Sequence to fold (235 residues):
Amino acid sequence: MNLALAALAFVEYARLVKAVGAALPVTVSLVATLAACIFAAQPESLAAPALPAVGITLLAVAVSLMASGASGAGLVHGAAAAVLAPLYIGLPLGALVAIHAVAGREAVVTLVVAVAASDSFQYYSGRAFGRRPLAPTLSPKKTIEGALGGFLLAPVVLVAIAHWWLPRLPPLTVWLVGLGMVLAGIAGDLFESALKRAAGVKDSGALIPGHGGVLDRIDALLFATPLFYLLVWLA
Fold:
């Protein structure tokens, strides 16, 4: 399931970065993204296979780009985009599997609910109190007041859920990680907005009618998952 989601997200990502003009080696980068997803899903040995995987990815990207005849800025942009894909998409989605293996489905549900709560609180706080734009060039509808709503309320939701499903964790630790997850989620949302703006599109795809593509739905989750993985590891 996670591999299929990673593949769908990568297709949208590749479309965005190609629209920017990057000479992305699609096959190599896709394989690296799926491999990163598989490696990250192994909770007992996450770091060990990741290091050679990074080296192999860099070598494959370099060879592929040189064989394609890309040069100048296109080569640099393509290399950066190819290496970013496994980190941006593969590792977080693989970490979801690792979280399930370590702490069970309750932990995964806790993560998803916390991210959804953050998005919802930001949206409704922004609608009710939003006056000052947070990042007008990237996401005109996001406001500082909306972000503050997420910071104030989403960690409380995470602490409340973790009290029942992850009782071994100190509430203060959960709250602090919750603050980090809100910040990471906002960064993930703005990062994807930057990709779409650079590509000149409103949505990353049209797979989900009325909601855009896969990346549009999981942009905050991709950035928040590594922090939650740290929370589970601390437990």
About this structure: The longest strand covers residues 139-143. DSSP finds eight helices and two strands in the chain. The helical segments are 2-20, 26-40, 47-68, 72-103, 105-129, 144-165, 171-199, 214-234.
